[in-house]
Amino acid sequence: MLSDYEKRALLQIHAWKNPQQTWYDKAMNYVGRPFEFAGQVVDQVPGFTTTCTNAMNGIVNLVNDASQWSVRPDAIFEELSDVSKRKISSLEHIPLLDLQVVDKAIGWLDTKYEGIALVEGAAAGGAAVLSPAVALATIPADLFALTALNLRAIGEYGTYCGFEMTSQEERLFALNVLALASSSSDRGKQVALAHLVKIARDVALKKTWDKLEDYMFVQVVKSIAKSLSIDLTKAKLANVIPAAGAVISGGFNAYYTDKVCKSAFYLYRERLLALKYGPEVIEITVPPAKSNEWISDEGAD
Description:
- With 301 residues, the chain is mostly helical.
- The chain has one domain.
- The protein has 12 helices and no strands.
- The chain is globular, with a radius of gyration of 19 Å.
């Protein structure tokens, strides 16, 4: 039975999944216009966006694997044990804990990753002081670092909530969390949410995961990577604005990482509650995807 803390948390999760636009959100639309303008201008550089997209396609799966393997479950189990005053030595023990205990262990995880992102982004954006050409050249490496950092953050949130992040379904879930945070369109967000709902419900129902053939898995990853690279590359093109590049880049990286961490925080905690109390806990914001493929008739970006 849901504790009072878990009931409140579930209401907060569902409110996050169904946001109401506030005056602040409207104001941020105006703040984001310089990013859009810079993206439109530099996107006219022949082949630049394509180059970034191809680079992302090649590294996303590799980075995802490396990021998830770098998460240290033993350290997380030890922290959960300290907070709960119970011996936690495996992922199976985590659903036995109240969500309040897990949240206490998670603590200020988002602040840690946002701080790292701010420093890394500012260093990359500082190249704009030298010249726009140098700034352009740093964008692929900056995207690589930003993607790796955020996939590791997702991996930590997932592990705190009891999920095996190196499994195929969790690697796909992590990429869809990135896609959700990266999407600049409602259509793209709906596609990502549809896949997140499908995977979350499959795992909560303890369905046997139909592992994708290696070729198909690569194609799914490429499709998600393409969506990621287009959205992130256009946002990062603001780096080419002289003098303001370091501020904008560092600020964007922290802003983006905050979106990723919030998405992971809410989605994995909802999934933990679904493991404890059943799949009906997962709110169906959009219908689950029909398959694991990002196909056009499901509204791909």
